[in-house]
């Protein structure tokens, strides 16, 4: 089997593979700025493909380079012949070569990705909200967004995203901010000196209203944007609100004891542990005394970081260096949920992914809330 980089000449082939696999009818070249891809060939013909998105994902307040894996498609004739696992083995080396120590994906076949070290590390959620459960708020001087608002919208989003583990920083070129203006509803609340105090984006279709982002810098703006959704009463009984800022959906809406949430799971893979730790933010480290934990990482598919590693906390910083006794044993699948803060060492131990006293690992990630993504790829 030959696995190679995807080129522009593969566009029709890749679209065909995705159409058969997912019913995807999207046109255009799957490659664009901020994306690259791999193609697997069997018997001299393309048999599978995947796309790598060049993202940055917030962890501990720092945007960590992350390869978002999507569109993993295998031709029906080639299934069961190791094409998908071959692509995943190759992509791990590719991610490391491109300086992406993390990788995330949405798994339709979790067992496949778990076999290569990805593990559930967060959620993508949408909340069905009846309009009578939408909080009232002050009337805001909101207006339609224009192109000049895009930097302010992006800054407003990142003020929130930087505090929620897992959210993308939505930086170019992987994400084109101008595409926001193509949405059906894009409202901004202006502040001082051109600052955006808050904004709302939404799409309207036959199923109803899908609110994509509802972001505010302060509670008055958040409540005002929520209250503005009540203007849809009479046209709609309810709407769907994507959970980007958990404070809005968890603390400012009035859902009762029972409500409907649509949840998609995403999996995270630590591709290069020393590089990932160096890039991450560690807010708790500034309060910790100098300490270390000796790890033994079992990862046959990423041998460059397998073996004995020492995680050191010193002067408010965290680093990983070779050596140590290997007192805490970690399987590859344990690294993603620990890194994101989704699971502590007790849960990982019960799942058979960790052995040993890993209390320092728990103190570092420190219950930051449920990690979440708000973008599909």
TrEMBL record:
Keywords: Transferase
Protein name according to UniProt: N-acetyltransferase
Any one GO molecular-function label of the UniProt entry: aminoglycoside N-acetyltransferase activity
Ranges in coiled-coil conformation: none
InterPro entries: Acetyltransferase_Eis, Acyl_CoA_acyltransferase, Eis_dom, GNAT_dom, SCP2_sterol-bd_dom_sf
N-acetyltransferase domain sequence ranges: 1-143
PROSITE patterns: GNAT (PS51186)
Gene3D superfamilies given in the database record: 3.40.630.30, SCP2 sterol-binding domain
Record carries keyword Transferase: yes
GO biological process: aminoglycoside antibiotic catabolic process
